[in-house]
Amino acid sequence: MPLSNLSLNSLRAFDAAARHLNFTHAADELCVTQAAVSHQVKALEAQIGRALFRRTARGLVLTDEGASLAPTVADSFARLERQIDAMRQGGPREVLTVGVVGTFAVGFLLERLADFRAQHPRTELRVLTHNNKVDLAAESLDFAVRFGDGAWRSVEADFLMTAPMAPLCAPQALEQLRQPNDLSKLPLLRSYRPHDWSAWLQAAGTSGITPRGPMFDASSIMVQAAMLGEGVALAPPSMFLRELRQGRLAQPFDLEVDVGGYWLTRLLSREATPAMRAFRAWLLGAARS
Question: Which residue range(s) make up the domain with 240?
């Protein structure tokens, strides 16, 4: 039977009756009589040639055919309502999926998301965190924010900001760290970037210190461990300003070493959508300010 032969009123009556399992309650929802709901359901059953409900001593129940049809009808009405609502509000919502290295997500992005939502209410932003190892294509990402030098193949990379590294520790560890050579007294927590400590120690003019301590696949977790007194982390102080200001984290030395920056990347083969263009412009502006 052609779909055009089915009555929208009959489908709506069936949807309400299937949810309530009661013709009277369905009628109240639709602002019609119980007899009208019963008539519409019977008409639908006649059109498709299958019984959709049966009456039992305990009330109305769906037949197997009715139970199979009900979720499809409910989903169709829900999708129709969402689309009409979107049109009334100026257009459909566009989903934007962004992979973000965890440190940048916590230290910069999250506190600014409200501003993006206010400026772009029709964009549904989905944020996925990663540990700087990300595959834009395999993970179906529109963008990825990552840390490094920007030299990634097959991607367009927009520079966001520098993020110089410095040792960070729990406040109670400050007494043991009067000069850089004192770092030999404490575990040096390591991230997925094994050469960062070497760069800082060399810039500080220290010698004979080999980073030995737990290794973490996320800098944000590494800094949490440092705050708990597990050792000294090397991370960007600019991403942990809240913790530093609150006194939960300390920076024992002023020396900061630039070993990379944060970049907004997308596949060169990925055609930019309106939501992508809007997010790129917003994030670049937020980074500059």
Answer: 166-246
Are 278 and 152 members of one domain?
yes
Q: What is the per-residue DSSP string for 188-253? A: B-B-S-TTHHHHHHHHTT--S----S-B-S-HHHHHHHHHTTS-BEEE-GGG-HHHHHHTSSB---
| pTM higher than the cut 0.85 | no
Query: How many alpha carbons lie under 13 Å from residue 115 in its C-beta half-sphere?
Result: 11
Residue type, 175: E
Judge whether residue 4 has pLDDT over 70: no
- H helices within 94-206, ranges in order? 102-104, 113-119, 196-203
Please check the confidence at residue 116 and state whether its pLDDT lies above 70.
yes
Q: What length is written for the chain?
A: 289
Beta bridge partners of 147: 262
How confident is the model at residue 77, as a pLDDT? 87
DSSP 8-state secondary structure symbol assigned to residue 183 = G
What is the residue-averaged pLDDT of the chain?
91
User: Are both 62 and 75 inside the same structural domain?
Assistant: yes
